[in-house]
Amino acid sequence: MSEKTPFTKEKTLFHKEKTMFGTDKNPSNILPTKYTLDSKIKFRCHPGVSCFTECCGNIKIVLTPYDILKIRKRLNMEAAEFLHTYTTPIYLEKTDFPGVAIKLTEEGRCPFIKSKTEGCRIYSDRPTACRYYPVGMANFHEGAQEEQNAEEFYFVVKEPHCKGFEEDKTWTIREWREDQGVDVRDEMNKGWMEIVMRRKSFGYQATLSEQAKRMFFMASTDLDQFRSFVFDSSFLKSYEVEQETLDKIREDDVELLQFSYRVLASMLFGTDDIKVKPEVLKAKVDTIKKEQEKTGKTMEERAEADFKKIKEEWDKAKTA
Ligand code: SF4
Ligand code: SF4
After folding, report:
1. 181 domain-assigned
2. Which of 258, 276, 294 is the last residue of a domain?
3. If you average pLDDT over residues 275-286, what whole number do you get?
4. Do both 48 and 174 map to the same domain?
5. Hey, which bits of the chain come out as E strands?
6. Contact 156/31 with Cβ under 8 angstroms?
7. Same domain assignment for residues 196 and 133
8. 15, 42, 60, 82: which one has the fewest Cβ atoms less than 10 Å from its Cβ?
9. pTM given for the model
10. Distance 92 CA to ligand 2 centre (A)
11. Hey, whose CA ends up nearest to atom 8 of ligand 1?
């Protein structure tokens, strides 16, 4: 579906069958209708359906930072232990960002299934992708237009094994999302999704350094380690962070999570979510200036000279 639409830039797409980020694995199961928040669907999922937990296998469930935080707190596990036990490394779709998905059992089932009759053992803390299913959300930008021109709509995934559509319960999409706690998750995931989608829109033209990848992975999967990075490394010597924010993120994981999105956006895309301290910036500018004085050339002149030199060598190699 995403490949064939007239929309050029996919922003957000959640559903469980493939990952939160795409529908291309099995697009034939997506009903060919665009839904709004007020559209109605007839659907109910409960332990009485004959297919109960069938959709919890042979799937790729990508975890957001908030998913990881909630599930590992629920299981009372350190991030490293949780990642090692329950996840598998992946690249977030169509990006070079490292992420994690739930590691399925050898039988291809989700490890959080308690039993066929009891369902999910972390149900109230289940991942975002599980909450979305079977209603996905798409948000497309037409061409390079602005955010306000983005078109948001919903779609329904109807897989042959899912008997929920035969149940006698009708909801609006709004009611369904509220019932599943999707809106809260969206709010928590928003900053992170924007970073991923921004990277996705770049394609692979710009290479991400290994250090940037490590930073993204650490901030996305291990908030305790990220907190140490903020408070125990030279981070605060270089970046300006208000005392009020520091007080909050020292104790509060959700505040720290939101702060990590700001840090990632600044470090990866140069946004001014977190500002470099004026004295650090000045020191950098001074270093560049000193370099210019030493060589007698501006940065542009140096780049041009470098280019000329490379071209000369190239021409020489061609005529040799
Ligand atoms: S986390 Fe729970 S709801 Fe999601 S796939 Fe696993 S068992 Fe099913
Ligand atoms: S009704 Fe659909 S969503 Fe519910 S358990 Fe069955 S397959 Fe999964």
Report:
1. yes
2. 276
3. 83
4. yes
5. 9-13, 40-42, 87-91, 98-102, 113-115, 119-120, 135-141, 151-156, 170-172, 239-240, 275-276
6. yes
7. yes
8. 42
9. 0.81
10. 25
11. 56
